[in-house]
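Question: Send over one sample?
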Amino acid sequence: PPPPPFQAEDGIRDPESCLVGSEMCIRDSPMIGYVVLGTNDLARAASFYDTLLAEMGVTRMMELGDRGFAWAAAMDKPMLCIMTPYDGQPATVGNGVMAGIAADSRDQVDRIYKKALELGGSDEGPPGLRAEGGDGFYAAYFRDLDGNKLDVFSYG
């Protein structure tokens, strides 16, 4: 049998527009706790993300031994982690893998995208409205210094 529909007490902001299994369901608590991107040069990656994420007031929250670091707006918010692979093999970029960074405004999307390119990141799509994200989805795409693909976006 199909799962029961979500109820308002589940944290859905607009239960009438929520379809089970749909991206239209927005919960008050995040589904994703953290995303890990691989690096082969931890010092270089740390410098890139320290500077890039400072554009949105995000700071380094955790040191993960000698293998990596994590950034977040607060300890109870989703984190972006950069790590060397656990198996000791070189980090490689996943085809079709992308991490999305939520921005507060279109202006912040523009600033983060520009900063990423200034820091040596590569362009994967300039800031603009994107039909695939629905009405008001404004996004820019870039790759970090290790080739990991990121998207910075805002709605509205």
